[in-house]
Amino acid sequence: MRGLSFRFSAKIRPFLWAFALLAAASGCVAFTYTAYYAEKKEMLSYLLQQAAMTADLRLNEIFVRGRDRTPQKALMEILKAERGMPLTAIDIVKAREEMQRLPWVKTVEIERRLPHFLLINLTERTPIAVWQNQGVYKPIDSDGQIIETTVRKLNGLPLILGVEAPEKTPELLAFLAQEPELLRRVKAGIRIGKRRWNVILDDLDNGITVRLPESDPASEWGRLARLNKTQGLLDREISMVDLRQPDKLIVHLKEYKKSKKKTVPKPDLALEESL
Fold it and tell me: Residue 266: pLDDT above 50?
């Protein structure tokens, strides 16, 4: 196969050479411009620091507002500020960008308060639940985002399990909160097949599993609250309530193991029939 080649007429060649020279000149100008202003910026920063020293605009104290879970040490390592240094020597833009990437930080603002102070205003992310995935526990914030840090205790927050469960957690807790008495008993939410929820009440190991439907789970959650208020449904010896069918209610009774020391009476089987 023959290689491709291009030939230009003698009339076009001078314009091509002129264009090439212009492009090369533009590159040189751009490089010179960038280098020039980089040098000027560095010089200006130095002059500002000297002016701050002359005017006694030195850092004496740092105030942090809104910090609860964010380690103060992490903030100071990013800030790289020392007592007595010029306030203008602190790159607050870069520091804000780095603080924004800390796990608990939602928003951050840094202000110089002349003549001697620096103010850091934090808004931290609020945990609403804890996601368990492969033995690792991470908080979920109010936007359904995973906070990239691990926790060892639930601290009263519900446990969330299942694929893609975190992003659906705010929606789950929103309709569960419509029934405050039941919400206080919620220990966990399990996302089933990326479609619906099972909710665990009272105890993670031996509590009551509530199977909610894929469509309109809030209505069925309200139905459960009414049944519990009128009939004391959840105070009975049951292990599961199935609400997936709007015209039916399926209840499973707890199974008791026989004990050698004492005899536990069998639950009333008529209970399931009456419900």
Answer: no
